[in-house]
Specification:
The protein is an alpha/beta fold. Helix content is about 15%, strand content about 25%. The chain is elongated.
Length: about 160
């Protein structure tokens, strides 16, 4: 009886919206999800590498013009170690998760880690605008925080125990 209750409870919890796997959309439908973390299912027709080492998974049927092909998967050369070989995906159906980006009218997912093929997250990249001007040698923060400005406090050092 206890075992049956545990199985029922597990089944009930995994069907809740937060626990259920998100369904994948086709590469054609992915263009309707700009800026969103999306699972995309597609067939890989070709793996193309540019001179700078950037690799692309061509998800469009042969004969379709570049203008008509509205979705691709791009992997930068700096992510080659984390992504691994892509040739094994040639002529395969794939599921890939990532944020859909729109560049020059074309949608794409940036493939930065192999775990994206298993519903995992992209590789974390810090926001460069948050760390602009930051230096370990200086005592400056990486961003302007009004709470740290003496201009906004009548007694800027009162909270440090040196009240006036």
């Amino acid at each position: 009886m206890l075992r049956a209750s545990a199985v029922f409870l597990l089944a009930a919890v995994t069907t809740l919206p937060g626990f259920a796997a998100r369904p994948c959309v086709s590469s054609e439908a992915a263009v309707e999800h700009p800026g969103k973390d999306t699972c995309v299912t597609a067939h890989v027709y070709d793996v193309v590498e540019s001179k700078d080492g950037t690799r692309f998974l061509d998800l469009c049927k042969p004969g379709l013009s570049d203008e008509a092909c509205r979705f691709t998967v791009m992997s930068l050369a700096v992510d080659r170690r984390e992504v691994g070989a892509l040739e094994g995906y040639l002529d395969q159906d794939i599921h890939i998760r990532g944020v859909v980006h729109v560049v020059g009218g074309q949608s794409m997912i940036l493939l930065s880690h192999a775990r994206q093929f298993k519903d995992g997250a992209e590789k974390f990249r810090p926001n460069p605008s948050l760390i602009a001007g930051f230096s370990v040698e200086s005592s400056r923060t990486a961003f302007r925080d009004p709470a740290l400005s003496a201009k906004h406090h009548k007694s800027g050092t009162a909270f440090l125990g040196t009240a006036h």
